[in-house]
Amino acid sequence: MTHQNLTRILAGLLTAVVALAFAFAIHGAVPALPAMTLAVVLGLLAANLPGTAVWTAGRARPGLDFAGKHLMRGGIVLLGLKVSLADVLGLGWLALLLIAGVVAASFAGTYGISRLFRLPADTALLIATGFSICGASAIGAMAAVRRISHRDTVLPVALVTLCGTLAIGALPLLVHPLHLDAAAFGAWTGASVHDVGQVVATAQTAGPAALALAVVVKLTRVILLAPMVALAGAEQRIRHRREAAGRTDQPAGARPPVVPLFVLGFIAMVALRSSGWLSAGWLEAAAGLQDVLLGAALFGLGSAVRIRTLLHTGARAVLAALAAWLLIAALGLAAALLMVR
Description:
The chain is mainly α and 341 residues long.
């Protein structure tokens, strides 16, 4: 990166760091509020309050866009260090099949619902990816492999944050009406809540046993990010070849990769974590760095959302997201009851 480019993005990066410090401070005072969700909310506020809107749309915008795109990819790579194949396999084959089925049905159902509400295909794809796998991280990965504009990720990230936040408040209220024990609630949370931080915030209300199972189930969903993105990349490559077949002006080397480097990095980090070579100290340090990268990225994405524009263009998207949220909650509950019976 040249000195000129660094100077151009520095203001936005520093803004994201300061905002992230506030997010962590609030999370420290109110642990039920995930820091990553707070980062998006602070971005939304910064983009829409009169005192900060001009700054985030002006001088800070290049750095905030850089954070939303490139720091997101770094955070996705480090997310792999949270996943141990031994923990995942410890769930048993029935649980693994149920989780894979929930992800597949959630993806197909959310995409179908989004298209029924006449959302664009790219928007529907990103919403389906984020809702079915791991929230904003999955949205960023899918957008990268499908070469979807950074600007078009803003609405899906806002929706996955909204519905994940609703889950934190709504799911614990349903424990007693549904007669769920800690194991069933933990499995339900892990199978249906979008972001890892939101899963932790939701499941911890039922105690450590629910939290432990919820995290393993959730991280099993996270593993499916790699094959899903790889399939999307392969489909994009095939389409690119077909479109280029009848053209003579297609530049050499313009074909998109089947699997982006950051997804390969994610897979490598899963393998490294599963090897047991890293000490607890290294894993803790990597988790801290991952939070910083993803938090800054999510603030950058949130700071691009204009509430007025969202109200005019996003009403159908909000309704589609709420319908998809209910669908995934139902699928996750059914799978959870089968897992722990």
